[in-house]
Structure formats: structure tokens, C-alpha cells
Amino acid sequence: MxxxxxxxxxxxxxxxxxxxxxxxxxxxxxxxICPPILMLAVFAFxxxxxxxxxxxxxxNKDNSAISRALTDKLANTPYIKHIHSVDNPQELxxxxxxxxxxxxxxxxEDFAQKIYRGxxxxxxxxxxxxxxxxxQVVSGYITLIMNSFQYEIEGGDFAKSxxxxxxxxxxxxxxxxxxxxxxxxxxxxxxxMMLAITALSVAQEKELGTFDQVLVSxxxxxxxxxxxxxxxxxxxxxxxTIMILAGHFIFHIPxxxxxxxxxxxxxxxxxxxxxxxxxxxxxxxTQQQAIFGVFFFLAPTFLLSGFITPIxxxxxxxxxxSPINPLxxxxxxxxxxxxxxxxxxxxxxxIFPLLIIAVCTLSFACWFFNRKIN
Length: 374
Known about the structure:
By secondary structure, the protein is mainly alpha-helical. It has helices at 2-24, 26-46, 65-75, 89-97, 111-116, 132-153, 177-208, 211-215, 221-249, 259-283, 287-303, 316-319, 326-340, 344-373; strands at residues 54-60, 80-85, 103-107, 124-127.
């Protein structure tokens, strides 16, 4: 028992040393405190796939009361901020080419006449296809507005519109996109912080020449890795707590399963990332190499995690890589814990792969580290 306590005190001494190294450098203090604040200030408000500030051109050849009513309805929607009327197709093309507007609607001369005769008029919608995702979203908005306008001018005739659809959005009734962004960037933040601290920990000592002092200590290789991991996890929890508090008090994000469950699940994810960071730090001799290694890992991890594009839309060969990506399981788990109140079975379905990844990465990092120093 005394030997165990002695080893624990030795590990604790290494942990204290790591904390002192991290906190003694003013740049490190800035790196710990600023990222969560900047992410909340920038990404939570700027990083959104929603389209709610559209500039639109209208070429109204009909100029009837009905066509003007359609223009007014488009102008009063929350998605369209600016509407400009043009008098000829040449001006319409020039403004679209110069990106002065994103979408253009052309109303034909016989628009009102066809409506009065009970026929279906055709309007032309031109969108800037250089931004393909935005074009699809805007096209959906305009289609909904046009369908609503058609229903209004028909006087609510249920014979012509026999089906009415009532939509409910589960887990996020108001479709608040900031909930998705803040929860997702929790994973992005802790991944970057964990990899940066763990990957630089051993590489920094190698570069400064102090690593030999650690090797001659009575600590075993796995104890050295534990001492390097605990400070990184503590820093990640500190930054994560800032974002969770902001999510609760600023963005009013619910925590359906409670914060104790959330923090416990995050620990498993942090361990899976720690093993990768320690492996990068072990194979690198300088901090510059460690930084390159971190970015080499981060790029495919973010792209294939489902954060930017759904995994179902990826090629089948890339979809098969998602089970070994810790962020894929983290995003699914956090959205379920915060928004869906998932049961323990669903929690285990995401935690179990993270446990396997953590055991594999930490074991491999410890084995490789032991092999290198021997």
C-alpha cells in the first residue's frame, strides 16, 4: 500500500509540474481562456447554415394588382431583406453577375390573366448556383412562399388544396440553430485543446532538453503518461464548463439528462483523444512537428465526423470510417444528452465505441512510448 501511495505522490508531483508549466507561460493562459470565448462570440452567431438575409431582384412584366401583391408578400417575409425591381433582363443579368443579388424572380405578362382564368401561371426563378447549398435553401423558401400565396388568392379553397400538413419539430421546437452550433463546438473545442496540450507535452520537453530528467525519475512510462494527461483533461473541462454555462444562461440550451451524466460521458471522449495526442507527442521530436501532426489528424476528423455534412451523404467507403472517429460518437451523444433525453441504452451505444477507442489509443501510446524510451 505504501508503494502505491508513493507512486501516486510521484504522479501528482508530475501533474503539479505540468500545471506550472502550462500556467507560467502567458501565451498558454491566453490559449486556455480565449478559445471558448471566441468560439461563442464568433461561431455561435456567425457560423450558421441558415439563410435569412437574401437580396432579391424582381422583373415584373405584368404589373397587375396580383403581381404586386406577390411582391409585397415576398418583401414581408423574414428571409428576404432587400428587393430591387428591374426593368429589363439585361439589368437583371448584370446585377446577378456582379453578385449584387442572389435570386431573381421574373413574372410574365399574362400572370394575372391566367390566374383569373383558373390556369396555373409560370414564373421564372433564377438563383446564383455558385453557392449551391444556399441556392437549395433559398429555392425551398421561395417555393413555400409561392404555395402560400397561391392558397391565399384561391380564397382558402380546400377543394383545390385538399391536404394540409401540420409540422412539429421534436427536440428543438423553434429550430434554433445556435443549439446545434454550440453543442457541436464543444466537441471541436475540447478536441483541439486536448490534442494541442497532450501532443506538445512530451515534444516540448524533448526540444527543451528536460525530458531526460523525467526519464531518470522513479516514474514508470504509464505513470508519466498519466501525469501528462490529467492537466490536459482539467484544461479541457475548464473550457468546456465555460461553454456549458454560456449555453445554459445565454442560449438557453436544455440539459435533458443532467450535467453529471454529460460530464461523465465527456471524460470517456477526452480519454480517447488523449491517447491520440500522446502518440503524436511520442513520435515527434519538436513542437513544430507535433503541431503539424495535430493538424494532420484534425482535418479528416472534422470533415468525416458529420459536423459539416451528414455522414449518409458521404461515399460508402468514407462512411465505414465513422465508427473509428471519436467525434462522430461525441456529436451523437451530446445532442442526445442535451436535447433528446436519451435512455441509458442509447448512451451506452455511443459510450462503448468511445471506450474501445480510448483503450486502444492509450494502450498503443503507452506501448510506443515505452518502446521509444527503451
